[in-house]
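Q: What changes when pyridoxal-5'-phosphate is included in the input?
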Amino acid sequence: MSELRYPSTRGQAPAATLSEAIAAGLAPDGGLYVPERLPSIQSAAFDPDGDLAATATTLLAPFFAGDPLGDALPAICAEAFTFEAPLHPLARPDASLLELFHGPTAAFKDFGARFLAACLRRLRAPDARPLTILVATSGDTGAAVGAAFHRQPGVRVAILYPDGRVSPRQAHQLGCFGDNVHALRVAGSFDDCQRMVRAALNDSRLQAHVPLSSANSISLGRLLPQMAYYAHAALQVQRAHGVPLDLIVPTGNLGNATAAVWTRAIGLPIGRIMLACNANATLPEFFAGAAYRPRAAVPTLANAMDVGAPSNFERIRWTCRGDAALREAVTAASVDDQVIRTTLLAHASAHGELLCPHTATAMHLLDREPVHTQGHWAVVATAHPAKFEQVLEPLLGRAVPVPPTLAGMLARASRAEPLAADPVALAAWLAR
Ligand SMILES: *Cc1c(COP(=O)(O)O)cnc(C)c1O
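A: The predicted holo structure follows.
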C-alpha cells in the first residue's frame, strides 16, 4: 500500500500526511483536508466474526498506511469503538434502525470524538505547549468532544453553543464536565459559533500565543471513523440477506453523509443514500438542481441539524469531482417540524418505536418508500430519544426512559459562561 496524501479542498496549501491533517483540523488555506483518492477494499477483506473495532481497523488501514499513527491504528480503534452500532429490527421487515447512540453521550458523535481524542493523544509531544480544542456545537458534538477529552493532560476544550437553542438536557451535558472542559453559551446561532471557531483557527497571531485545534466534523479524525459503522452494517446485511444496504441519513453539516458516500465509494455494499434534512433546505434545493445557496439557519425540533451552510459541503463536492456527479451520488429531502411531530407520534403509538427528532426526519422518508425488494433500508438513528425529552414527552404524554450514562451526567452540576457572538470576544477569552 502506498501512502495516501491529504490535499486541501481549496488547493492553496501543501498536501498533508494523515497525522498532519488530523493535528491541524482545518487546512491553512481555509479548506478541508480530503484523501487524494479513495482506496478500494473488498468485502472479503473483513473478518466475518469481527466486532466494530475490527471492521474499523481493516477499513481504515489504507488511510493510515505509512503514517506515524499507522502502527497504533488497532489500539486507536480498540480505544474508540468500545460500544457497538447495532441494527435493530423495525416493524417493516425491509428496514432496520442503525442505532448510533450507545456511546457515553448518547449520540453518534461519540464515535468520531473518541477516535479523534485517541489520535491526538498519540500525536502530542510530551513537552508540547497546552493545546486548546475548539468546538462549535448545535447540541451533540460538544458533549461528545467534552467526554472524549475530559481530564486528558495538556488539552483544554472550549465548547461554543447557541444559547437557548439546544435542549435543556443537551445544555446540561455541555456544562457538566468541568476541569479542562469549558462550556461557552454564545448569544447567537450555531452558524455564528461555527464562524467564530473558523475565525480563531485562521488567526495566526492568536495561534502564536494559544495553540488551537478543532474538533468539528471538519476534522478528518472525526470523519474517517464514521465510515466504520456503515461498513459494519452493510457487511452484516450482505451476509444475512444477500442485498446491499440503503441508507437514510439525518443530515446537518454533512459529516455523517460524507462518511456514508465514502464507504460506498471504497467498495462496501451500500446502495442508495438519502439525506433527510429538517426545514433548513440548503441541501435539498441543491440536490434538486438549484445552485448551492448557503444561508442563515432556522431553528427546528431537530436542532443538531439546524445548519444553513453545511461545513462538509466543500469536501463532498471535492470528492465527487463536480456537482453533476454529486447529484447522482445522493438525494435529499426536507422534513418540517409538523411532519417530525406526526412521525414521532405515529411510530410511538403504532409500533412502540421511540425516535429522536433527528431520526424522525429519516423515518419519514422511509415511510414514503414502497416495500423494498432489492435491498434493505437502514434508518440512521443519530441520537437517543431521551436527549430530547422536551419534544417527546409533551407529545407522547409519557416519560422516555433515560439510559444510565446520560442519567449519570444529568446528576452532575453544570455551568456555562456567556459569550458575545463575535470572533473578537472568543479571541479575548482564549488569550486570557
Ligand atoms: C450532528 C447530528 C446530526 C447531523 O450530523 P452531520 O454529520 O452534521 O450531518 C444529526 N443528528 C444528530 C442527533 C446529531 O447530533
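Observations recorded in class: The chain is about 40% helix and 15% strand.
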